User: Fold this.
Amino acid sequence: MTPTEGPAILVRGLTRRFGGRTAVQDLSFEIARGEIVALLGPDGAGKTTTLRLLCGAIPPTSGTIIVAGIDLTRDPERVRVHLGYMPQRFSLYGDLTVQENLNFYADLYAVPRAARESRSRRLFEFSGLTEFRNRLAQQLSGGMKQKLALACTLIHEPDVLLLDEPTAGVDPVSRREFWRILYELNRGGVTILVSTTYMDEAERCTTVGLLFGGQLISIEDPGAMKRRIRGEVVELVAEPRAAARRILQRAPEVLSETVIGDRFHIVVADAAGAIPILTRRLTDEAIEVGRIAQIPPSLEDVFVSMITERRAGTPPAPETARG
Assistant:
């Protein structure tokens, strides 16, 4: 397999242990060229470890990683030419200017000097940093720091981009702008794997992978994932919420529940049968029900449902095979 053939990322039996703790266990998946894939999971699920394994920052305990047709364990230096990795805490140098930071990473990646000026100009225009190129990095806003980090990651023009929660702590406007840049990169042929805690970001991706306890419990397109939810989703608005939640948690009809803003999303086996029963339970306890109705499942509903099933030891619903 050559760097221009096969999937962008191919993983088989990937496991990483730290002493007696298994951070990721027997991961197997593949990502086609040109995909934009989200990796979801609660804290400690193994997202960061997975990305660090895929970029070669840490070696696997066992398993195979092939990126751009190259075996990462056999030829890591050759793979890194095709990879861009942006960790959660990207090492920008606050006492260097935006331009100096980009020059530094160009040196790290041995970017030919003849190509640096044109690439820098294009990256600055692309990310909206042109007017800030002489500003110290420590004086940038959070959103601009992330854009600079991305520009540094792209200076060697990688085919595959690995991003570890790149918009964590960034304001909503900067998040949208950052994703606009990712979409443009993806349209240009760059394969992107991004870990995120934001469901709206995962919804934008061609594929979503769900990690829990170091295991990959689902990887498929968001629409297919939503169809796998066991049961139906009911949206509830009720006051007082704390008391309403205690009743829902005790109700045998409720398979799982979560709070989204001022609403509850409740997974039940049968919405038509559960709605009148839950309404009666709540009103009998002096809970004011403002709205209760069945709604289509969101990705967050599926996420909560799958995690609840896994914690309870329920086998997951069948999924479409991926690799």
